[in-house]
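Hi V.,

Quick status before I head out on leave. The structure for the redesign project is tokenized and pasted below; the design run finished overnight.
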């Protein structure tokens, strides 16, 4: 057994070596207590013996630091009696104590005892950590099974079989796969909620524009109240995630942009200030778009880009309906700007729709919803053309309202399908 000797002063530590030689102990070095950890790391002894007639704070601190950073079997030589408070020695993980002047054979026997106790403590610590790991993994597995059962309509046995298969294919522990699935689900939910804020910013203005021309008034009021409630719920959820870095900064920008819009929306005379409302809604849209992108980038999970793009498709029909309605209500350059922006929204939606139809992350259910959305989109375009031409403007406005909400429902469903797809969750 190689042994490092330590004492408050170097001379005391060096004087121990010839005293212990008759017991056949191999001393690899001597040091002051304040250098104990450094010398243990440098010399890598099998055990440590510390001579200390008094346990001063500096010596105790050195022993405790050793236990935390480079634990070894530890024998304390002297003092004649232990202190009343043994807590610091327990924290230092002292395995054996010999009072009085050191006797060679007694030191050797005490070191053997310290080594056995140290090995036992290490085994117990390993077993405790393993048990804690198993318990933690069980929690992750149970949560992951719940996600699969809820969103894939699987039984508990089927969900566990899916996780076990993924674990074998990925050559990862079951708990690691389960934790990855939960983290993927949480990241997708964050991207989904942030993406909803983009849509809601436009839906609020659309509802106010419908109210201004007294079209679908009852539903417009419902959509307005629902949108406000959903913005608040999304902000509360996102604030609870404890975001850091760029995502936290982007969330703060959203939180700053919302109150002014909320206050104006609550104004009973707001329909006479639609341009002002729309400007505030655009600020919220830009902030929410930046937040969504930051969340996608922070997660670095490929399927979140599909969730993001699909979630953005919820916003564009609301935006297009808003723009078509405002183009008919505003005057001059403001109306022309809305009409021009509507063309951009149409092109953006069409390009993303084609991209989603060609995306590899697909199922029969996803393709069915995409086909339904394609038909709704054609009817939406018809309403936009009728509104732009001034053909039955109130009926065109009603059709804009209906089809934009129908597309919202379809892309809410489609976003959820992408969000909870097996491929996405399991990576």
């Amino acid at each position: 057994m190689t042994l490092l000797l330590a004492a408050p002063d170097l001379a005391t530590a060096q004087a121990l070596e010839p005293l212990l030689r008759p017991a056949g102990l191999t001393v690899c070095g001597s040091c002051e207590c304040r250098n104990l950890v450094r010398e243990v790391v440098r010399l890598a002894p099998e055990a440590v013996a510390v001579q200390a007639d008094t346990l001063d704070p500096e010596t105790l601190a050195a022993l405790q630091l050793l236990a935390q950073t480079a634990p070894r079997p530890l024998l304390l030589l002297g003092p004649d009696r232990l202190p009343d408070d043994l807590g610091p020695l327990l924290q230092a993980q002292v395995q054996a104590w010999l009072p009085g002047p050191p006797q060679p054979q007694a030191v050797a026997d005490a070191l053997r005892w310290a080594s056995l106790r140290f090995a036992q403590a290490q085994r117990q610590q390993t077993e405790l950590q393993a048990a804690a790991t198993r318990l933690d993994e069980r929690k992750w597995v149970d949560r992951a099974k719940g996600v699969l059962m809820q969103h894939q309509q699987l039984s508990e046995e089927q969900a566990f079989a899916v996780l076990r298969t993924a674990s074998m294919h990925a050559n990862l522990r079951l708990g690691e796969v389960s934790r990855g699935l939960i983290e993927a689900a949480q990241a997708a939910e964050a991207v989904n909620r942030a993406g909803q804020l983009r849509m809601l910013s436009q839906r609020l203005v659309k509802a106010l524009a419908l109210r201004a021309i007294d079209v679908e008034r009852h539903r417009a009021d419902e959509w307005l109240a629902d949108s406000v409630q959903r913005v608040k719920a999304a902000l509360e959820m996102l604030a609870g995630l404890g975001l850091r870095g760029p995502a936290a900064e982007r969330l703060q920008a959203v939180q700053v942009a919302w109150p002014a819009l909320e206050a104006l929306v609550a104004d009973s005379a707001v329909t006479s200030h639609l341009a002002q409302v729309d400007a505030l809604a655009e600020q919220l849209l830009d902030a929410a778009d930046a937040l969504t992108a930051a969340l996608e980038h922070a997660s670095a999970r490929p399927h979140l880009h599909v969730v993001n793009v699909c979630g953005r498709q919820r916003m564009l029909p609301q935006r297009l309906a808003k723009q078509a309605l405002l183009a008919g209500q505003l005057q001059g350059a403001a109306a022309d700007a809305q009409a021009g922006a509507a063309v951009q929204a149409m092109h953006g939606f069409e390009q993303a729709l084609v991209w989603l139809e060609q995306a590899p992350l697909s199922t029969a259910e996803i393709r069915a919803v995409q086909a339904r959305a394609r038909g709704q989109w054609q009817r939406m375009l018809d309403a936009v053309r009728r509104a732009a031409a001034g053909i039955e403007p109130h009926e065109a406005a009603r059709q804009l309202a209906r089809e934009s909400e129908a597309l919202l429902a379809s892309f809410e469903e489609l976003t959820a399908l992408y969000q909870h797809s097996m491929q996405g969750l399991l990576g």
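Above is the designed sequence. The first strand starts at residue 2 and ends at 7.

G. will cover questions while I'm gone.

Best,
W.
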